[in-house]
Predict the structure.
Amino acid sequence: MPAKPRLTPAEWEIMQAVWDLDGPVSVRDVLERLYPDGEKAYTTVQTVLNTLEKKGLLRREKTGLVNFYTPVSSREDATLSEMDSLVVRVFGGSIPALANTLMSMDDVDLDDLAAIRRLIARRERELKEGEE
């Protein structure tokens, strides 16, 4: 199975806007959402959207003279794919190594740890139910 394409920071930014806008979006829609003060050129956003389509992350459909883009996969699927790639590339496939690094970050507080414990407990329940 071919590797899923990784996204650049600019591509993630554009994809976030496409998911947030929730529907077929035009270049103008993304431009107005992300760069209302003209921080990026129309052609720059268009180029990134076309690159995302070539990578298989967006589907493009032309209506009249306007291209509309729709995500091929969900934000959650793209995030999981990116995290899987990160775990393999940076942590040698070790989820405990990733968790250890996250726990070592300075801004992890008691509330974060409580939330993580709840997530772990929920995942343990799911895995145990799957074994039955």
Q: What stands out?
A: The radius of gyration is 19 Å. Residues 9-71 form a domain with the Arc Repressor Mutant, subunit A fold (CATH 1.10.10.10). DSSP finds six helices and two strands in the chain. Residues 110-131 form the longest helix (22 residues).
